[in-house]
TrEMBL record:
Keyword RNA-binding tagged: yes
Entries under CDD domains matching the protein: DSRM_RNAse_III_family
Residue ranges annotated for the DRBM domain, each copy included: 75-145
Keyword Glycoprotein: no
Stretches the record annotates as Disordered: 1-70
GO molecular function: RNA binding
Keyword tags: RNA-binding
Pfam families: dsrm
Protein name, UniProt field: DRBM domain-containing protein
Residue ranges, compositional bias (Pro residues): 31-58
C-alpha cells in the first residue's frame, strides 16, 4: 500500500496497487490426446494385423518323443516334484525301479516309473537323478496330465 507523504499524519490516503496486465491467449478447441495404456507385468498385446493362415500341420515323427504343447514349457526345471505332486493329488501310487549297467566309472542308469502297477515311463541317464527325471516326464505325458 502506498501512503501519501503530503497529507497530515492523522489523515492518510491509501491507494491500491496498480493492477497487473495479463496477456490473454486464445484457447485451442482440440481435445487432448488420451494417455497411453498402462500394462502391469507384461508387454502390451500385439495389434491385430492382417489375418494369416495357420501354418500347415506336420506329421509326428517316430524319432522324437511326442511333446505336449500344454505342458509346462520349462525343460530345465525339475520335473519330478511336479509329477509326484500331481500323483499325490490324484491319489495314484508311484514307484520307481532303478537299474545300473556298465562299468562303475561310466555306467548308465535306467529308471522305470510305475503308476498303479503299470509302467508309464522309462528314463536313461548318466546319473540316477537325471534318469528318474526323464522317467517322470514320460509318465506325466503318458498319463495325459496337462
Amino acid at each position: 500500500m502506498l501512503v501519501s507523504e503530503k497529507s497530515p499524519p492523522s489523515t492518510r490516503t491509501v491507494t491500491p496497487p496498480p493492477l497487473k496486465k495479463v496477456k490473454a491467449e486464445p484457447m485451442s478447441v482440440e481435445p487432448a490426446p488420451p494417455p497411453p495404456p498402462i500394462f502391469f507385468g507384461s508387454a502390451p498385446p500385439p495389434s491385430p494385423g492382417p489375418a494369416r493362415p495357420p501354418p500347415p500341420l506336420q506329421a509326428p515323427t517316430m524319432s522324437m518323443p511326442r511333446v505336449n504343447p500344454l505342458a509346462p514349457a520349462q525343460p530345465t526345471l525339475p520335473f519330478l516334484p511336479l509329477f509326484n505332486q500331481t500323483a499325490a493329488q490324484r491319489r495314484v501310487s508311484v514307484e520307481y525301479s532303478a537299474q545300473f549297467t556298465g562299468p562303475s566309472h561310466a555306467g548308465t542308469w535306467v529308471v522305470r516309473c510305475i503308476v498303479n502297477g503299470i509302467p508309464k515311463g522309462e528314463g536313461k541317464g548318466s546319473s540316477k537323478q537325471t534318469a528318474k527325471e526323464e522317467a517322470a516326464r514320460q509318465a506325466f505325458y503318458a498319463m495325459g496330465w496337462t
